[in-house]
Design brief:
Helix content: 40-55%
CATH class: Alpha Beta
Strand order of the largest sheet: 1-2-3-4-5-6-7-8
Order of helices and strands: EHEHEHEHEHEHEHEHHH
Largest sheet: 8 strands, parallel, barrel
Number of helices: 10
Shape: globular
Length: 254
């Protein structure tokens, strides 16, 4: 299967107004500025985008706004993971209709039949690609490396931050691997990972690109903010963005 993209993409923050309403225009402007700074893909309504707080109409508005704000050769990936197959199908169909180029889906908690789940998502996304989302801390138990080759997906996003898992998937899985942890970039890039989809790229896009290219100085330069967001989560990331660019730090989570 053709790779969706190669290099570093951003797991985009969702911008909200003071009243907590989504601000699609501001979200699209943020995406456009990050693409100008080197991002090769934009994930909308992922975990970093506070997807759990967004209804279906809001997700579609955000996808449309971002798709309209960035060049057509930069893919927009929509987060469509859900607790049930029925929900995931509906979210995926809506994302396709709104202009998404691909979807990222996390499997339901303790899902026993990953093939059934991802086949349903892939059917709803046709002919566009699906990425599996491995993030066991948030969506346990995640997607085992052994099962990846049997799933109808183009690749995976691995946000476990586990270097042993990274080595396992790079040696045994032939599909695309995108890392989701900014702590592993200088390892993942030189070892042949396809790319990265990163929350920290909202505030450090250039350093993320350099670290993925194998620059140890850039990797160390990310350490302070990586650790701050790892410990403080989404709210810490939004505070950093507010400090750097004067954008609202409003969030629905927290």
């Amino acid at each position: 299967m053709t790779e969706l993209f190669r290099g570093v993409g951003v797991a985009l923050l969702t911008m909200f107004g003071d009243d907590g309403a989504i601000d699609p225009g501001a979200t699209g402007k943020l995406a456009a500025s990050l693409v100008e700074r080197g991002m090769r893909a934009v994930l909308v309504a992922g975990t970093t985008g506070e997807a759990a707080t967004l209804d279906g109409a809001e997700r579609c508005e955000l996808v449309k706004a971002v798709r309209g704000a960035i060049p057509p050769d930069v893919p927009v990936i929509a987060g469509t993971g859900a607790p049930s197959i029925r929900q995931a199908i509906a979210l995926t169909r809506d994302a396709m209709a709104a202009g998404a180029d691909a979807v990222l889906a996390w499997p339901p908690a303790a899902s026993r039949d990953l093939a059934e789940y991802f086949s349903a998502v892939a059917g709803a996304a046709q002919p566009r690609p699906v990425l599996a989302y491995h993030f066991p801390r948030v969506y346990p138990p995640g997607v085992p490396v052994d099962t990846l080759a049997g799933l109808p997906v183009t690749g995976q996003k691995d946000s476990s931050g586990d270097p042993e898992r990274l080595l396992d998937e790079l040696t045994r899985y032939s599909g695309a691997t995108y890392v989701g942890s900014s702590a592993l970039l200088a390892l993942a890039g030189p070892l042949g990972a396809t790319g990265a989809i990163l929350a920290l790229a909202n505030v450090e896009p250039e350093r993320c690109v350099a670290a993925f290219a194998g620059d140890p100085g850039a990797q160390l330069g990310l350490a302070e903010r990586h650790l701050a967001t790892s410990r403080g989560g989404l709210l810490a990331l939004k505070r950093i963005l507010a400090e750097d660019r004067g954008l609202p730090a409003t969030a629905r989570i927290g």
